[in-house]
Give the backbone structure.
Amino acid sequence: MKDEAIINHGTAIGVKGFIQKPIKANKLKTMLDLVCQEEKQAEDRREELLKPFATSFEKNLMEMVGLSSEITVARSNGIKFISNGLAIIIGITGTRQGRIVFDVARDVAEGFANKILGSTSISEEDLFNCISEFANIVAGHSISQINNQFKGSQFEIRLTPPSVFIGESLGIINTKMASNAVKAQTEIGAIYMNVGFLGGE
């Protein structure tokens, strides 16, 4: 089947091409070449979209928290993201769908909040608010930079409010999302950011 409703639904979940039976060999080859070319372009776009996140992450760690960091970026393995204890999830909506996860171990979160608030006596609420607000600022700066980069085109993305998840073995799974892991190694420990986008435009 290749009607408009199926094509729209398929495109929304990342389907790259549609063909309908009966299919000739040359048509199949053309479609496969097109899909492979689009996948390479999608990978290049993901890399291009990741740069502002890594830059904003490093910059705001220094400016807001006074933490210098060594940033490393790697392609995430598999479809499952395992949290270190405290995860802040922010959705990406608009032209591209996706999500950002900020993740820290509990002791690193405490050191982080201590540095921001200048106190060693911090409530649970203040701890979560510090990490959430930092995540929201980094994500907001990144999205603004991306939207400015694509200004004048039909490309525009926005953020959803952050959600806080706490747990010793928290797993986040999305089978349709390619993501990259950004690690900031700091004097108080590692702080992680995972940025993922669904396929398609």
Notes: The first strand starts at residue 70 and ends at 75.
